[in-house]
Amino acid sequence: MENNNIPIENDEISLKELILKAKEWYHYLLSQWKIIVLAGIIGAVLGVTYSFFKKPVYTATLSFAVEDEKSGGGGLGSALGLASSFGLDLGVSGGGIFTGANLTELFKSRSMVEKTLLSPVNVNGKVISLAEMYIQNNDWRKKWKENPKFSSIQFLPNAKRDDFTRIQDSIMGVMYANLSKSGLVVGQKDKKIAIINIDVSSTNELFAKYFCEALAKEVSDFYVDTKSKKARMNMAILERQVDSIRGQLNGSITRVAVANDNTFSLNPALNVRRTPAARSQVDVQANTAILTELVKQSELAKVTLRKETPLIQVIDRPILPLPKERFGKAKGLVMGVVIVVFFTILFLIFRRLLKELIW
Fold this sequence. Notes:
about 10% strand, Helix Hairpins, five-stranded antiparallel β-sheet, two-stranded antiparallel sheet, alpha+beta, Bact_polysacc_biosynth/exp, 7 strands, about 350 residues, Wzz/FepE/Etk N-terminal domain-containing protein
């Protein structure tokens, strides 16, 4: 008969063994208290020293609201329906691609950030670009003096982005990466509130303020141009048609007057000579009716364009002095102690494990 009472080796660690192992490591680390205390002192010194050299960070905040566009209602909706019956598209839409989260991403896009960096600002009586201001703030020029490729590089205000060299593209890419990682935050503080905040952080107070305001303007202009592009195109077409029909109407009125002069005191038996005057009179009436309708549609297009243009309403702008955040001495001391002691303990544990494996 097979014996089922053969003991099975259990590789699992019991709770008692786990507690004993923890006590063993505790006593080991306690025996290394001098090293750990020394590491804590070194960490405290490093943390406090770092707090002295760390520049304060200024944060510029701009809040804005986006107009909630709806398709026309009431009288305007009726007028738009009338316009559509004549085959005219006045550019009114019930939505758009730049709404909600898409709009916040537009603020953080590389295109908008780089256009903002090329915006002109007045610093100490000299007009420079925000990109140059960023370079000066980070002392990049000093590092570039030894490299002839970088020493002559300039970022002029309102420079054409398409004309940049590969090196300029690379520098702009670094600036964008630095700003998007830690210097620029765009979003809603509360999902229930339709107010979006732009936060720009920098060690230079003026740069934070100027960049925040310039970014809001750059995105606002782009947003308005894109959103109202269709309405502006339709309005331009209508205005050209109005000018054309008005010119034809003036010509028809002149021809009527000339024809009437030519047929003044004409023999009633020669009515055929009155044909040009009658034709011109018909042209006047037709052009008058067309011009009247086009003027209506042109004014309606202007109303539509005005309706779509004020899309971004700024609520609060950054005001000097900006709120700043310092890396305090107490914070530096605590973080220095925690970080250095943590890595010291890891080193001690790794060293003991290595010795146990060797022996």
